[in-house]
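ok trying this again, last paste got cut off
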Amino acid sequence: MSSRMRDAGQNLGVAPEFTVDPAMLDAISPSGDRGGIVLGSGLKGEPLTISALRSTPTRIVLVGGLYLARQVAMRAMAVGAWVVVATGRPTEWQVLSRAAGSRDGRPSPLVQIRRLSPVELPRPSEDAPLLVVTDGGPTPQDLFPPRSPWQTTVYVLPYLHPQAGATANAADLVLMQRLPAGQAELAARIWRLPPQMMRQLTTLKDDQVVALGRNLWRPLRLVTTGKEQQLLGPVRRGD
């Protein structure tokens, strides 16, 4: 797996270290291990962290609701990333601007909410990585493919669609919430999952996610801080 996940018992990669405003970190996210994004906890309660902001262009596919997508974006902000969201539903993403706050009476430049059209992106660097969120429905346009180091593009899929197979197959990491039986069957065809994994996708609870990658199948439970609950509400599968 290219995007690395690790837990207390197995080190699968070291996340790079970024600088971040301590107030933002305290406000919206649990602290990460050397800049990694704390995604949730394992079956035994151990913290699980993904190194999604790294020196290699990275693709992440999220199959599920807006809650998961916005939480991932907030936690990227908390470890010092610029976040650009290209979406057809901008009002649903304004919560990121509220989370980032303002500087000198102006919205924080760390967050940009854009329409679904090409725009010039901030130049990513090791000190200021870039997370681009493409929220363009089940068959997203590849408006901002990750072409440079320290850029990660996240594709938000409300559900699996056969025409999204190319996007899904190109992902370094896939995060899936509960799927109906038909979509679980499609997931099994796309990623060649055995029957027991396909069935598990249909039985996930609202706060459960499966992380899928090369040689990776990891169920986990989403963990939400008090501040995140104020901004996003309770953990849920959809919106």
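PB: full thing came through this time. Residues 46 and 61 are 24 Å apart (CA to CA).
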